[in-house]
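Q: Sequence in, structure out?
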Amino acid sequence: MLTHGQIWRAVDRLAERHGLSTSGLAKRAGLDPTTFNRSKRVTGDGRPRWPSTESIAKALSATGAGVEDFVALLDGPGSADGFSERATPMVGALEEADVRRAIPLLELSQAGAADAFDGSGLPAGAAWDDVVFPEVEDVHAYALEISGAALAPVYRDGDVVVVSPAASVRRGDRVVVKARDGALLVRELTRRTARQLELRALGAPHETLQLPLKEVAFIARIVWASQ
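A: Exactly. Output:
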C-alpha cells in the first residue's frame, strides 16, 4: 500500500530530477504554484492531504516523465513526513553524502514585500516555504525562486538560487541587494567603494546602477543556483 510520505517524496524527487523546486514544478505543469508546497500536505487540523491524480498527471506530462518513472521515485530513503532528501547532484563539492536540511524558500517576486526580511536581512514573515538543501556553512542561508524572464539568460523562470548572508562579497559576485526604499535587486557586483555599490544588471549587462551605501539595507552573495 502506498503511503502519504511515499507519494509526496516522489513529487519532491520529480521536481529535483528536473532542477526545480516543488513550486517550480507546479508552475511548469500549469498549476497553482503552491499546489505541491509543504504547507499543502497537511490540513489545518493535522490530517494528511494527498495530491490529486490530475495534478500528478500534469506534472508528469510537463516533465516528460511516465507513470513508471513516478513509481520508481516512490521508494528509497526519506523522511517520514513525506519530505524527501534531495536526490539531485549539486555542483562542485556538494555530494550525495552531504548532510541536508531545510532552508527558507520564497519566490523572488514576493521577496520585495516589506515584511519578507527583518532588519538584519534575514527571512521573516509567513510567506516563506522550505526547500531541502545540502548543508551550507551559513545557518541563515535561504533560497529564492526566480519568476519571470527579467534575469534571463543568467537565471530562468523556475530556477532556484541559494543566498548566504554570511558569505563575503567580492567584485564579480552575483548578489541580492535590498534597498532602503524597498526594492530588491539581483545583480552582479562590479565595484564597491566606501560610498557606493556599482551593480550590473544580469538581463542587460550594459546597464549599471550606482547605489549609495547609505541607501542599502543589506547585500548578500548568491552561493548556488539550480541551473
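Residues 102-225 form a domain with the Umud Fragment, subunit A fold (CATH 2.10.109.10).
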